[in-house]
Amino acid sequence: MSDITAARAALRQQAVELPSWAFGNSGTRFKVFAQPGVPRSPEEKIADAAQVHRFTGIAPKVALHIPWDRVDDYAKLAEYAGELGIEVGTVNANVFQDDDYRLGSVANPDPRVRRKALDHLLECVDVMDATGSRDLKLWFSDGTNYPGQDDIRARQDRLAEALEAVRDRLGDGQRMLLEYKLFEPAFYTTDVPDWGTAYAHCLKLGDKAQVVVDTGHHAPGTNIEFIVAFLLREGRLGGFDFNSRFYADDDLMVGAADPFQLFRIMHEVVCAGAHEPEAGVAFMLDQCHNIEPKIPGQIRSVMNAQEATAKALLVDAEALAAAQAAGDVLGANAVLMDAYDTDVRPLLAELRGEQGLEPDPMAAYAASGYAERIAAERVGGTQAGWGA
Ligand code: LRH
Ligand code: MN
Ligand code: MN
């Protein structure tokens, strides 16, 4: 029997972090379809994130992306979030949108550009100091498009140098999360293309450096749960950027393309006890809602993550261990599938009720009138971000 009391307790503690950029207009390189009521400022993005928390009860943090969320006073921004009942989460550095970064940021052959990129990363640590944020998320678009374009090993040296400087700047309790991505925008080499490269850099950097797994950043068919299990075993999984992919880095709602994969990932997390807040794994979303409304898109994603977690928590660990020890291939698989096939929606609705929330967050948000209110109030101006 799975331990339902423990599962309930774990679900009550669950926290999913929202990306501020999910609330702004975003699109593909073909078209950005503007939506009414999208935020015009970091404050408005935080207000929208607070709505997701209001209806789901498990999204108490919002991640910032600098400079998309640049403000004069970050402490004040964090205070504002606090007034709305949420906190500032990860600070995401953006060293990919300036003209200077044509040949890369921290791995650029030009020392002036490298210095500029590093200064930005250090500025992001200042933002962490001001907001009380624990994690700095580093993703580099750096790489090359053509064989021979640059020296692959020299680029690794430049990258390592910048990472060391960031590590040295981190304060107590602060971490750097290194995110890898197979390709794009670089199409020949990417300087941090996979978990192995990220892990190797983190090993050298020491305890403050952890790998972040963005679920959309792998080749088709990659066994992501294996990567998760391995990094957890090594104590190097700092967090997730959750999203779904059908083809490349699609940034669709998590659990939309492959809910079974999300369950398998969460099963590894639960097996390692890494769903406990003390484990320090940040469960973040990294999504862009191109055609669907943004706040409901985030609510649905949070619910999908919650459902996958609930199913993973319902795996009968004893029965699984017994089947594994007995070499019962089909029995072990059946234990997992039993949990995956459980309809956890009534359980989650019940838990919401206990927290004083409406059982159906999507319906409750739709009935709240918030969407109509922001569409009427927020006229003029678009916040910087993918769509800007
Ligand atoms: C890169 C990425 C990274 C960025 C975000 C906006 O593809 O996943 O996490 O910061 O998208
Ligand atoms: Mn990401
Ligand atoms: Mn991505």
Automatic annotation (TrEMBL):
<dbReference type="GO" id="GO:0008740">
    <property type="term" value="F:L-rhamnose isomerase activity"/>
</dbReference>
<keyword id="KW-0413">Isomerase</keyword>
<dbReference type="InterPro" id="IPR013457">
    <property type="entry name" value="Rhamnose_iso-rel"/>
</dbReference>
<dbReference type="GO" id="GO:0019301">
    <property type="term" value="P:rhamnose catabolic process"/>
</dbReference>
<dbReference type="GO" id="GO:0019324">
    <property type="term" value="P:L-lyxose metabolic process"/>
</dbReference>
<dbReference type="GO" id="GO:0046872">
    <property type="term" value="F:metal ion binding"/>
</dbReference>
<protein>
    <submittedName>
        <fullName>L-rhamnose isomerase/sugar isomerase</fullName>
        <ecNumber>5.3.1.-</ecNumber>
        <ecNumber>5.3.1.14</ecNumber>
    </submittedName>
</protein>
<dbReference type="InterPro" id="IPR036237">
    <property type="entry name" value="Xyl_isomerase-like_sf"/>
</dbReference>
<dbReference type="InterPro" id="IPR050337">
    <property type="entry name" value="L-rhamnose_isomerase"/>
</dbReference>
<keyword id="KW-0464">Manganese</keyword>
<keyword id="KW-0479">Metal-binding</keyword>
